[in-house]
Write a sequence for this structure.
């Protein structure tokens, strides 16, 4: 029901909606939903992370690097590097976090 809940909340949300899908002692998997134009503002990851797009497309920005990710594309997110994510269209992404990727 996690993804359904995100999609329902996105109908009235002004910001991306994120929820934990699965969590263990050394990992966490989040689902992040975006409407077109929504943005996760600049922030840092405190552990190794990977962003995978399951539907839609987003732009991942880090320093002077900008990557467009479409359905099924993925990118690693380094620890303690400022980055942001912006939706080019309605999108659903998985963010996996943990010691090993």
């Amino acid at each position: 029901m996690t993804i359904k809940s995100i999609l329902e909340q996105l109908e009235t949300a002004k910001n991306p909606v994120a929820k934990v899908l699965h969590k263990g002692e050394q990992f966490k998997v989040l689902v992040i939903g975006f409407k077109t134009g929504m943005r996760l503002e600049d922030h840092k990851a405190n552990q190794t992370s990977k962003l995978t797009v399951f539907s839609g497309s987003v732009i991942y920005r880090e320093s002077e690097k900008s990557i467009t990710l479409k359905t099924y594309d993925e990118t690693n997110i380094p620890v303690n590097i400022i980055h942001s994510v912006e939706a080019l269209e309605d999108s659903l992404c998985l963010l996996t976090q943990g010691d090993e990727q």
